[in-house]
Amino acid sequence: MNPIRRTGRTPGRSQAGPHPLGGSVDVLVGRGVPHQQGAALLTAMLIVVLVSSLASAMVWQQWRAVQVESAERARTQSAWILSGALDWARLILREDAKSGGATTLSEPWATPLAEARLSSFLAADKASTDDGPEAFLSGQITDAQARYNLRNLVGDDGKVVPVELAAARRLFDSIGVSPELADRVASGLRDAVTQPGSEGRSATPPLLPRTVAQLSWLGVDRDSLRRLAPYVVILPVRTTINLNTASREVIAANVEGMDLSAAARLVQSRQRTPFKAISEAQDQIPPSLALDASRVDVKSNFFEVRGRIRLGDRVLEELSLVERRGLDVLPLRRQRVNLQDAPG
Q: What's residue 4's pLDDT?
């Protein structure tokens, strides 16, 4: 029998070799070509996506490194400038101490430093100061003893001082704060400063606040803190208030029997002629009122230095507490109080 050969061709088929039975048939070939092309295209697309992702990640990492470096440079520059502002304040307070006189608001230390451009100092090359960062510095020195020192509420024996508690209650009442809050603050400070095992000390004493904002640890609410901030301070030791710099509310609270009107007249008198001694202030108040030299004075040893740096679109403020001991001005505390972007 003659072998059978199929001469017709089906689309998508090609003629193959002889059939095992002696004939030859067309075998299906070529159908894998479209699948192979699709797989190659998909592989290429995956490779492109992978390369794009890796490239994007590398660019983001580089951008992040630049941003971190820029922020660190700005932080270092700001800290350097603010340290210079503190040194400037210490120099002024030291020169003021050489006079040995009273501490008054008519002295150079009480004049704020207006915002000044410092870009020329930050530029690497003085010949190209326009390329330096835009930096502006301002500052102010304030008398910390112009405010009532809450540390006075606790005596050296670890007990609340009744006279000081009465003064604090009068001050709180005059500025719209509940007088009972003064008792809470006094009790909290007593528990915080007295030694473990002392009589009357709480079993779980609070931490000792070092700033007015930290009075919240003693249960003082936010609105009361806002009202108290301009009138009270917490210093490391008990101090007097300065009659040449204190507000009428603080003066009236510290002089038993004095009202706000009499305190206001005392403030007006010192504006004309600052007091050089307590006796000069005593002459300006009614004879029935007596100034206690252990609670009031005309000199100050504690000051707050506020420095503000505006560097590009960043604003940084630092508040420092310094103590003047003779001709030495020692920084006791430095606190950054504000870090934000400058508005528009």
A: 47
Inter-CA distances, 190 with 97, 103, 119, 166, Å = 33, 30, 49, 16
With a cut of 50, which residues of the chain have pLDDT below it? 1, 4, 6-8, 10, 12-14, 16, 21, 24-25, 27-29, 124-125, 128-129, 341-344
227 and 260, same domain (yes or no): yes
Asked whether residue 247 is domain-assigned, the answer is yes
Whether residues 150 and 233 share a domain: the answer is: yes
Domain count, the chain: 2
List, as one string, the DSSP characters of 74-131: HHHHHHHHHHHHHHHHHHHHHHHHTT-----TTSGGGS-EEEEE-HHHH-SSGGGGGG
How far apart CA 187 and CA 180 sit, in angstroms, is 11
Are both 151 and 290 inside the same structural domain? yes
Q: How many residues in total does the chain contain?
A: 344
In the prediction, which pLDDT does 187 show?
92
pTM equals 0.74
150 and 293 part of one domain: yes
Shared domain for 284 and 166, answered yes or no, is yes
Question: Is 74 part of any domain?
Answer: no
Domain range for residue 123? 79-144+301-341
- Are 298 and 276 contacting, i.e. CB atoms less than 8 angstroms apart? yes
266 located within any domain = yes
pLDDT for res 314: 77
- Reduced to 3 states, what is the DSSP secondary structure of residue 196? coil
- 169, 133 in Cβ contact below 8 A? no
What integer pLDDT is reported at residue 225 of this predicted model? 96
